[in-house]
Amino acid sequence: MDSYIKELIKRRDLLIYLVTSGLKAQHRNSFLGYFWWLLDPLLGVVVYYFLVAVLFGHGGEAYGVYLVVGMITWRWLSTTTMSSAKAITGQSGIISQVYLPKIIFPLGTSLTQLVNFSFGLVIIALFLVYFKIMPGVEILWLPFIMFIQQLFLLAISLTLGYISVFIRDIENVLSHLMRIWFYSSPVIWEADRIPAKYSWLIDINPASAFLISYRNIFMHGSNPELLKLLLIGTASIIVIGFMIYYYNRNEHKIIKAL
Predict the structure, then answer these.
(1) How far is CA 157 from the centre of its chain?
(2) What is the tens place of the pLDDT at every residue in 155-170?
């Protein structure tokens, strides 16, 4: 396992290439190009703001900030999850020709989406200025929350990247599961509106911990949900460690399946 990790470190140039090429490929043939990194999450916010605040009359004065934090956080989670399903299968041409630690591909996918999220932070900052909300010193928790979410998403990426090699239908199933996860998380609706008998959905939902934590530091001047984040981070590290071991022992099966 040590030699496998050393081999992965030696391939860090390839990892950087995978991240940069992944970013370029997203909007390579579009007219607006890289501007879509900002425009895409902004359009999603506008659609749901019109639906919830304008059409149905829900949400308070700062609902715009509440929504933009939720949508951009969810966008990072959902795009990483969906793209991880084809992180390895989409690189079958390279894998069949050159020996590489296969774990590098889902790792590159998760890091690419981390960069995308950083552009979403620009949109959040613009909304905070527009709604005249000034975060307090709690904003210093931002790197910690991002780090825990990155660990969580890396654990998902490594797991889905491997499973999808052998179960090709998983991408189709994921689209439906992600839709359920979206509507059961306080992305567009406010967490305190949920009936008490369903409050357990918030407690067991990792996405809720991230959403509430980001909103706490951006909007409410309070600390993130530290205990839940630490539990998520610990579980994610365990899964990541196990998946590194599993990739190391079973990479030959990936080559045969591809």
Answers:
(1) 10
(2) 999 999 999 988 888 8
Q: Which distant-in-sequence residues (6+ apart) come within 8 Å of 114 by Cβ?
A: 76, 146, 150, 153
For residues 106 and 88, the answer to whether their CB atoms sit within 8 Å is yes
Nearest alpha carbon to residue 125 among 27, 249, 41, 29: 41
Q: What is the pTM for the complete model shown?
A: 0.89
Identify which of 116, 124, 145 has the alpha carbon closest to the alpha carbon of residue 206: 145
Euclidean distance between CA atoms 212 and 207, whole angstroms:
9
Query: Per mean pLDDT, which of 21-35, 63-77, 136-150 is the most reliable?
Result: 136-150
Phi-psi region of 225 (alpha: psi -120 to 50; beta: other; left: phi over 0): beta
Q: Which domain holds residue 228?
A: 2-257
Q: Which amino acid is at 62?
A: A
In this prediction, residue 251 carries a pLDDT of 79
Cα separation, 90 vs 71, whole angstroms: 27
Q: Give the count of domains, the chain.
A: 1
The whole-chain average pLDDT of the chain stands at: 85
70 neighbors 211 (Cβ within 8 angstroms) = yes
* pLDDT 10s digits, 49-108: 888 777 766 767 788 899 999 999 999 999 999 999 888 888 777 776 777 788 888 999
44 SS3 class? helix
Contact between 197 and 121 under an 8 Å Cβ cutoff? The reply is no
Q: How far apart are CA 4 and CA 247, in angstroms?
A: 9
